[in-house]
Amino acid sequence: LTFEASLMGAAAVPADDRGTEAPDTAPPQGPPSWRERVSAAALPVHIASLAVAFAFLLYIDRGLWFFYDEWDFLAGRGEGGRPLNLFVPHNEHWSTIPILIYRALYAAVGLHTYIPYLIVLLLAHVALAHVLFRIMRRLGVDAWIATAAAIVFLFLGAGAENLTWAFQMAWILTLLFGLAGLLLIDHDGAGIARDLAYWPVAVLALMCSGIAVPLVAVAGLIALLKRGWVAALRVVSVPAVVYVVWFALVGHVGYSVTHPTRAELLQLPQYVWTGLTTAVANTLGWQGSGAIVVLALSVFVAMQGPVAWRRCAVGVAMAMGAVLFFALTGVGRIALGIGESTDSRYAYVAIALLLPAAAWALSALGGRLHGGRVIAVALCAIVAINGIGVLTAYAQGAASLRDTDKYQLLAAAHLIVSGAPILAGNQAEPDPAIAPQLTLGELRSMIRDGAVPLGTPVPPDAVLGAALQLQVSVGETAPTGPGGNATIAGSEGLSLEAAGSCTSVTSYSDSGVLRIDFPTPGWLSLTPDENGTLGISLASTSDPGLVTAPRDWTLVAGRAAYVELAVGGMTPSFSLPPGVSILCGTT
What we know:
Elements: H1 2-10, H2 34-40, H3 42-60, H4 70-75, H5 96-109, H6 115-138, H7 143-154, H8 160-163, H9 169-185, H10 193-206, H11 212-227, H12 229-249, H13 262-265, H14 268-284, H15 289-311, H16 313-333, H17 344-368, H18 372-418, H19 440-449, H20 460-470, E1 472-475, E2 487-492, E3 494-499, E4 502-507, E5 513-517, E6 522-528, E7 532-537, E8 551-555, E9 561-565, E10 573-575, E11 579-584
Antiparallel strand pairs: 1-9, 2-5, 3-4, 4-11, 5-10, 6-9, 6-11, 7-8, 7-10
Helix pairs in contact: 3-6, 3-7, 6-7, 6-9, 6-17, 7-17, 7-18, 9-10, 9-11, 10-12, 11-12, 11-16, 14-15, 14-16, 14-17, 15-16, 16-17, 17-18, 18-20
């Protein structure tokens, strides 16, 4: 606190035109004034807000579980004797540090609890909020406005995805290292020691995710504004070389750019503008405000002039970094549509980069108005309250969705442990909806590790979902087990006629449904006269109202598809494509 208090005071020291702090040669002064005491009180409030935000976010996230990309780090790296592939990218991102964190947490707690993974995420988030506070104070932002702006970031509802998904620790750690490094190079001295110290910090950021690339460019811009081209080249040199070498040797294998067309690239300015304005509007909770605020902030920074740009280089460069971030992201994502720029994870990055300049502008405006600081803090409080509401609602919705996925995956584990017959091979996906990187073989390996919480009760709908994934198959090869024991239980929107020992089924639309009883394990064949999709869903025998979502398979005209069930006592529903299909193997 003493060190931070010295920073609070340093922020108020006048600077000359070169941006250096005035020498401390003033004679000793008396007791601090009331205004100085009020400003000093902001620091303990800021520290307390970090602790409160951490506790609040951990509380609302308590019902979350593992989701989607996390399974690459959990199952695809080092599990079951696989190599860690520490330098092989996840998609296009260099992810060495997040991989190491996930593997360490997996070794400690497995899948038994998500809380330790969230703790790392949220510790990185509150540390990043503190770095932003430090940067704002470096810019001379009023202590209370900096505290209020940091609280807005702590409860950033616009970036809810990054605060409810532990996997996004990769991006938050990138920002943490990248922005902490800016504090090292934001100086006017002729010495190079701090510039050299920036190199390892920047490399750590690069080893977390690809969003470190624009952050290194931001660092170079700060050095350029402060000390010229030589310093800028020195600052970016080693991080740039390290990243280029990694990309040339390993990183290019994961590069999955969507190859935008020339027409799509011409929409890049719209992509950047939409991303920036949406991030701001969603943060403020006032739709339509994004364009006004972005334009106003641009005018404010432009009007400050070269002297202020040099003195406040970190704020200017970070704001420009937000534009660069969306531009680089757009090159790889614009083929997915302009709306891709509005994703919550992008808003988090944009606000982190824009916040210091916005607080600088707010502090300057507040200093010119009577009671301006109070008004600015009150506005930040309103925005933070809106963010709390958005975060709470988002976390509740995410917990509900991930509960469904969690239980289906655990139901699949229960089937494996129970020794139930399973038709899927080791490369099948027990839950492709949320864990496309997790195979059945990897799940078996996790069970052997003792990493899966098998004692967790599983609801009936999850059991049905797991059965549909693992105990129902559709293939082109006739099964070797007994068949012919299934019976037609009913149909809707279909016409059925005998065709020798088989049945001719005519469907007039995609809504035709055929229900077939399998009293024992068995199989049947289905031969369509047109290409189409076969959907199969399972219903509970004890609760007919409990039905799974359909799982789809592709049918080829004139080619038999063999449907097999590993267990009896089920009545699957078949959604048939339009046309005539020959059904064999029923009585």
